[in-house]
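Thread: Newbie trying to understand structure tokens

Hi all, I'm a second-year student working on a class project, and my supervisor (Dr. K.) asked me to get a predicted structure for one chain before our next meeting. I've only ever worked with sequences, so writing a 3D structure as a token string is new to me. If someone could post the tokens and maybe explain what I'm looking at, I'd be very grateful. Here's the chain:
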Amino acid sequence: MPARFIRSPALAPFLFTLGILAFWIFQYGPHWPYRDGFIYFHALDELTDGRLSASRLLISHDNQHPIAFQLVVAILFLKAFPGNVWPMIAANAVMLWLSAVVLYMVAAQSLTSYWHRLALACLICASTLIGSQTSSLLWEFQIWFYSTLLLLALNIALTERFGLKAYPVVILFCIFATGNEAQGAFLWLIGAVHILYIAISSGKRGDRVAGLAILASHIIIFSVLALIMNNLEYRDAPRDVFNAHFIDKVVYGVQLVGGGFGVRNQNAAFAFGVLSLVAWGMGLVFAIRRRFSCVIDRVAFLVSAVSLMWCAAFTVGRASFGIAWAFGEFHASLMLIPLYSGIGMYSVSMLTQSRIAWRAAGACLGIFVIAPVVTGIPFAIQRSEYIRDNSLLDVALDCTGSSVKDPFMRSLCGINNRSADASSILRLPTYYEQIIAGEEGASDALHALWRVYLSRQDLRDAFSPSDPNFAMNLLRWGAVEASHERKDDSQALSQYASTFQSLVKRLGL
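---
Reply by user tm_fold:
Sure, no problem. This is what the structure looks like when written as tokens:
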């Protein structure tokens, strides 16, 4: 870590942020793969069996997203830490933190005041702690985003430091990012725009020509990538897909931006989205007035622009799924981290001005950047507890049998360093044990209900073990479900319908 960073006022905010991220990962980080995360293990199996050739790796994709680079990164992690996804989740946090450090180091070059540098550090750190990104931060498959964010920050730092001389490394990082899902392709555009500005600012005709040539070639590359990805099929679309018109997509995009505040109410999300775009627009106008002459303004423009481009692409590709789908796990919220970071930079840049009006505007933008951290806390806690409990349930269901025959699953079960937690979560809830102690005839019914709960993901989603009343709520659901099941239903709780009804009535549920 550079000595000037250690001596700077940014050290305390960044160490605090690193501590928060470390606590969150250690407290909630799962050890079991989730959904698309199994792709990494299957790729490792193919590599071990000699079936994963270089050409097959290069064209690897998940739905419409190229994933070659993230597969390489994930396989390296799984080689270093066999059968354990937790190190990848820790890497998500580390890369998020490092990208913030790099962006601060570059943007702070424009500042001379101790307090301005401290404010910049605090606001950039705040942008990394938005709670609505939890679904991604604690998911090993999302390592693509956090590595893309770090590549973006490094490209900006290298271009600011070395100008056109950095281009060979910039293009290499763009190639890496291309294999980091669709969002990675946008680094081609951001890198080209940045280099063009630096080239024009140099005043040399040769640099300007080179900058224009780079921009043109990067636009062509991006267009080809977009065409290829657009022709790939998305296999996991929700059932209630509708044909979104232009105005639907505009509203969806604004709501998507507002979703970074961790709110699911569509009207509130739209209002927060409008405020976010107004805040970004204020900063943009300020930077344009200064012709992006300061490093902090350029960095703010680049990171906020790529964030909005990601959201726009997400809107075009996913608006037909509906905003409720996007807010289910706040799929796009992680893409808003650079937007808040950029607004924070604009805020500090305004605070350096002598005019009271600009300072007041800068203070407002600073408060705005901190707000999503606070409003996203409820979702962050709820989602983190769900991810942790769901991981333990998966370990328990798949690894606590007398034998695990599938070698793939057996290798995963080697992660069972939290086996005590995993085993205990299979136990019947204490509330049910107390009922059985007083009414032995309820044992079969409650055990049947618990088996249904463990085997059904939708029930585990609806009734989180972190809710102190979840056993009561599950029993109430079981009584209703049993009364509506057919007698020949293969999952039947119906044979216990009278028992459930009697328990609900006696317990006053």
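A couple of things are worth pointing out once you decode it. The chain has a mean pLDDT of 86. The CA atoms of residues 228 and 278 lie 34 Å apart. Feel free to ask follow-ups in this thread.
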